[in-house]
């Protein structure tokens, strides 16, 4: 019997006094519908491996589910609903560095005019003139994440690392990035403890890499371009200068080699531009820019 997906998310109103009460009974008689353990496993296996099979060929792969990668996904998913967008995130928890504002403090600063995206998401904020403050960075990231994951053309594969790039030579002899090489992150981090843990692949005409500037695999694609000889050397992120850093990342978001777009802090590592510290407007604006660049390339 194929379960009919329920879209009704209105709270279960039972005959108790609280309209948000979902427990029918508080007197020790609460019952679940009966289930076989195999049904739970098969429900997950069928969907997960169907997704892997179906997304082995994607239209756009976004590497890194931080604020830049997720904003890019949000824009592409809304403006190009026909595209198969696959997000690969190495951590179990997506969101990257956007769960806190800075120095482990929770408020998140977003400089204008990037605050316009908060109004598109419906995230409340306090206006401080040149910038706005979201009361908790997790409010921004969880709202963005929930809206990205609700989009029918988006798939998130978390706890999955991109551990190499697929690089083809086109008919002119030009090297083109044509996809990513993936493995479960725990496998990718343990290649030196086991042998022959070969990876998997996802091919796509466009890869948007937003793997950030630090963390266990930060700036992954930028470093791989250097080791693969497609980029001479890493620019390495420069010292903090908010007023130079944020416009540079937004204005320089681009296709750095055919098929590969850099955005967010990975771009600062590739180009050697300044860092901006705990202000997130450039992550939003560069993610939007990356979505536009990807869209234009796909239409060309
Ligand atoms: O949040 P991040 O690190 O990266 P961005 O560019 O989205 O946002 C950067 C921002 O949080 C800052 O660093 C702020 C503005 N600070 C600036 C400063 O000056 O200090 O997200 C990157 C994501 C993470 O979730 C990683 O786990 C993931 O990318 N990731 C990968 N996922 C799959 N495969 C990989 N090889 C990989 N490497 C990183």
TrEMBL record:
For the keyword Mitochondrion, the answer is: no
Q: Where are the transmembrane segments?
A: 56-77
Which residues make up the binding site for substrate? 68, 89-90, 97, 162, 198, 213, 265, 275-277
| Cell location | Cytoplasm; Nucleus
Q: Which family does it belong to?
A: Belongs to the THI4 family.
Q: Give the E.C. number(s).
A: 2.4.2.60
Q: Which GO terms describe its molecular function?
A: cysteine-dependent adenosine diphosphate thiazole synthase activity; iron ion binding
Q: How does it assemble?
A: Homooctamer.
In what way is this protein post-translationally modified? During the catalytic reaction, a sulfide is transferred from Cys-196 to a reaction intermediate, generating a dehydroalanine residue.
List the taxonomic lineage: Eukaryota, Fungi, Dikarya, Basidiomycota, Agaricomycotina
Cofactor notes: Binds 1 Fe cation per subunit.
Which sequence positions carry the modification called 2,3-didehydroalanine (Cys)? 196
Protein name, entry field: Thiamine thiazole synthase
Give yes or no: UniProt keyword Iron: yes
Annotated InterPro entries: FAD/NAD-bd_sf, Sti35, Thi4_fam
Which key words are in the record?
Answer: Cytoplasm, Iron, Membrane, Metal-binding, NAD, Nucleus, Thiamine biosynthesis, Transferase, Transmembrane, Transmembrane helix
**Cofactors, names only:** Fe cation
Q: Which reaction does it catalyse?
A: [ADP-thiazole synthase]-L-cysteine + glycine + NAD(+) = [ADP-thiazole synthase]-dehydroalanine + ADP-5-ethyl-4-methylthiazole-2-carboxylate + nicotinamide + 3 H2O + 2 H(+)
The job of this chain, per UniProt, is described as: Involved in biosynthesis of the thiamine precursor thiazole. Catalyzes the conversion of NAD and glycine to adenosine diphosphate 5-(2-hydroxyethyl)-4-methylthiazole-2-carboxylic acid (ADT), an adenylated thiazole intermediate. The reaction includes an iron-dependent sulfide transfer from a conserved cysteine residue of the protein to a thiazole intermediate. The enzyme can only undergo a single turnover, which suggests it is a suicide enzyme. May have additional roles in adaptation to various stress conditions and in DNA damage tolerance.
